[in-house]
Amino acid sequence: MPNRLHLIARNTCWGSELFLTYDNKFDFGRRIEKADSLVDMMLQVGPHIYTFEWQIMVEIFDITVEAWVRREVPAMPSDYGTTITLGGKLYYIGYSILSIYEFEKNGWEIKTRARDNLMMGAAELNKQIFIVGVHNMHGVMMCQIYDSENNTWISLPAPNIQREGFLLLT
Description:
InterPro entries: Kelch-typ_b-propeller. The protein is an all-beta fold. The chain has two domains: 5-68, Thrombin, subunit H (Beta Barrel), CATH 2.40.10; 82-156. 0% of the residues lie in helices and 56% in strands. It has no helices and 15 strands. It has strands spanning 5-12, 15-22, 31-35, 41-45, 48-53, 56-62, 67-68, 81-86, 89-94, 97-102, 107-113, 117-125, 128-135, 141-147, 152-156. It has a four-stranded antiparallel sheet, with no helix packed on it. A four-stranded antiparallel sheet has the order 8-9-10-11, with no helix packed on it. It has a four-stranded antiparallel sheet with strand order 12-13-14-15, with no helix packed on it. The protein is elongated and about 50 Å long.
C-alpha cells in the first residue's frame, strides 16, 4: 500500500498529460491520461482529483479507477474567485459568496454570503478558511475566518497590505 500518491500534470502545446506516481518514485514513463485543457491547478477530495484551467473546474479524475469521471462539470458560482479544500470538501470563495461543491448533486451550493466585503484571497489553515479582502464601502482591508462547522465568521485584525495584487497561501 503506497504512503503517498502524486498526480502530476505536464502541460503540452495541446493540453496536459497526467502522470500517477506512488511514494517518492516519480515515474514519468507512466502516463495515465491526457487532458484537453491546460491544467494549472489540481485539488484532491477523497478519490477524486479536480482539475482547473484559469480557476475554472474543467474535469474530475477518479484515482481509484485511474479514469476521468464521465459527467458534465458544473459552471463555477462566479467569474472570479478561489477554490480550496477543507475537511474533504471543495469550497469556492467568490467576491462575496462562499460555496461548497456537492459531488452527489454535481453542483455548487451557496453556504454563506459576506456582506459588504470583496474577498481577494483565501487559504485553509487549522481546519478553517482564512479570507482576506476589502470592505466595499470604505476600501479598508479586512481579514476573517470562516468556521465551516458552525457556518460562522470571525473577524481578525486586518493584515498590513497596502496593495491590491497579492496571493494568500498557507
